Amino acid sequence: xxxxxxxxxxxxxxxxxxxxxxxxxxxxxxxxxxxxxxxxxxxxxxxxxxxxxxxxxxxxxxxxxxxxxxxxxxxxxxxxxxxxxxxxxxxxxxxxxxxxxxxxxxxxxxxxxxxxxxxxxxxxxxxxxxxxxxxxxxxxx
Length: 141
Known about the structure:
The chain is an alpha+beta fold. The protein is 23% helix and 49% strand.
């Protein structure tokens, strides 16, 4: 769930209610399963993935840089920043909270089903750059 922070496309995220509320909110937006980078994922697993992100990071700010819409498709380029305040489980291992704010760029290519729910997503994000920012080995993008 998001709330608008300004008219320029910046958004701050809010945490969703309990697990049941999260699953219901996600099910209204996403097909079940949704295909992410070619891999099917259930709405329940998507909720777990989002919860893990919001456990590891707080103070999320998302700025939409550009978007392109076509029938049944939407592509969004965005900047994302958040403070690393919880345990972050990455493909390279677990990272303890650092309190650092990390910055990144992302592009999501969304395909919608006939009901308007997100059925497929191609996600492009530089997770290694974010990891380097929190572990002290890197700067910003």
